[in-house]
Amino acid sequence: xxxxxxARELGEAIVNSNEYKTLKLAEAKQEQDxxxxxxxxxxxxxxxxxxxxxxxxxxxKERMEEIRAAVEEAYEKVTTNDIxxxxxxxxxxxxxxxxxxxxxxxxxxxxxxxxxxxxxCATCGGCH
Length: 128
Prior knowledge:
Elements: H1 2-15, H2 18-32, H3 34-56, H4 61-79, H5 82-110
Helix pairs in contact: 2-5, 3-4
């Protein structure tokens, strides 16, 4: 069926795109970097701890502040690691391509651009 042929072509074009290749290289680089992986694990662990303590309920203000500070510290370390930032930037660029493709596909299906004018000024973010 022609639609599936086009889907395969699109999949191949995505895999051959510079954005996808850059993402995969950055992902491999991040996965091979011990420091980056350690920072990501620490961040994940501290967020999980925060979630568990919140779910338990009755967490004191002081303890919540300790956990919040630990989350912020771990986040700061993650967002200042060059290898992680490289991966996040590559991921963002790739996601932008996917979003653009979805917009194009949606336009051809609906005849409208996503987020376009609904005709109701009540929900309008402003077009003028």
